[in-house]
Amino acid sequence: MRILGINALFHDPAAALVVDGRIVAAAEEERFSRRKHGKRPVPFAAWELPRQAAAWCLEHAGLTPRDLDAVGYSYDPDLARPAGAMGLDDPWDHLRQTYAREAPSFLADALPGLDAERVRFVPHHVAHAASAGLAAPHPDSAVLVLDGRGECASHLAGRYRAGTLEVLTTQVLPQSLGLVYEELTEHLGFLRSSDEYKVMALAAYGKPRFLTELREHMHATGDGGFHAHAVPWTALTEPRPPGQEWTQDHADLAASTQACLEELLLDLARWLHGRTGARALAMAGGVALNCVANSRIAAEGPFRHVWVQPAAGDAGTALGAALHLAAERGEPAAPMEGADLGRGWSDEELRGWLERARVPYERPPDIAEAVAAELARDGVVAWFQGRSEYGPRALGHRSLMAHPGRAENLERLNHVKGREEFRPVAPMVLADRAAEIFEGPLPSPYMLFVHDVAKPWRERIPAVVHVDGTARIQTVDPAREPLVARTLAAFERRTGLPVVVNTSLNTAGRPMVDDPRDALECFGSAPVDLLAIGPYAVRRGRAYGGGEETS
């Protein structure tokens, strides 16, 4: 069975292909169009489809649209209600519903040869749930979905057994943890539906002194649902105009909202465990990208295992829609083995890109050793290896790497990327070394939890330690990521540190680098010392200061 999943209606348009229950390819449209998040989540953009991502998924598998048995669209307009009736201030939302109803014909136009009758609507939160519950390594698990909005709800709690979802409860709009966090993001001067992770980072600089007031507006209701709506933000602190400096009041408001969110999520997790008794919890939805909250659920919640979909935001509903339709047709899903589901290039193809760009390059005996040597010299390395990641985290395929032992490298990398100074960078560490340095859920291959850094290590790897003494780590399994593991081992031989700084290979406001052209453009425009692209190394001094090409 060949099933394509599509997410398109709100933001982060994406496509995913599942063949015989196995995830073959998944990609976000932003990586092709180079527009952050693919588009803004406004009704007038609802018609835009992930044309390039869908075409690539099919091309990668050697399929045409005619070969598809089904296409899952991660929104069901029959479940929607008028925005006003749901308490939402969105007068043009009816355009979304119109576009959603016409999605089968739009998709048939975008993918010539596709039979529009093969397009099936999958409820938005069911698609989120499937992306977690069906892709997780635990075949039977409770599932918790929280985001801004779907058709008429913002939350789903349920359980998967033998590939079948039992929905236990949902939370109807306008109550929405995702929308409340979006409102806070805008109040603090950031771009809503985009910069929520900045609020989470800023929260570490504040104290939760508004927590009592916020609990009046954000709290669990004891029945698996919650109240989260109409928070009087300005009564708590004045808004921050975009581009202006943040104040302690702003950091305290972020910290208070973050703390309130964590409390509420713990209440929901405990309720769900009480109803299911499940040992494992799978999570998805944009709120599940809040790695600080995830860590509290793992540490203080009742579940033995917590697994979060790496593409937990709306992009992941493309995968969930495909997995849901496969399960409906009796095809059990194979667990998701990694997030490297996007585009990749052979060594010869990469060499062709370098020669066309006329940049001097070399092929060292081992690119891992060459990168480790550059990092040990305190160089910044752009790392472009294998297939690109599905989801918002750089996981050792499209990364910027640096030495973690120099505190100034945090400011240096934020300067390279053009980011706010309060933003942290993350550590990569070999899985078998993580427990001696970091305390928290292990393994953690997708950067979806935060970990306390052991005190003896905080001075040794200061670049990756956030102001609150935590780090959002990626553990590296040599069997799954042998090249990254070799690089970490080579760096430790040179420095005594089994950790390397890892942040996404992009600059502010732009999607992560995806193809070789993107990598060369980023390397050419940012102060990066070495580009490791496949087995090849491009050094800044040679590329922009003379030197002959070698191979």
From TrEMBL:
Pfam families the record matches: Carbam_trans_C (PF16861), Carbam_trans_N (PF02543)
Carbamoyltransferase C-terminal domain: residues covered: 372-540
Transferase is among the record's keywords: yes
Taxonomic source organism: Streptomyces cinnamoneus
Family per record: Belongs to the NodU/CmcH family.
Phylogenetic placement of the source organism: Bacteria, Bacillati, Actinomycetota, Actinomycetes, Kitasatosporales
Stretches assigned to the Carbamoyltransferase domain: 2-71, 115-323
Official protein name in the record: Carbamoyltransferase
Coiled-coil boundaries: none
Top-level lineage group: Bacteria
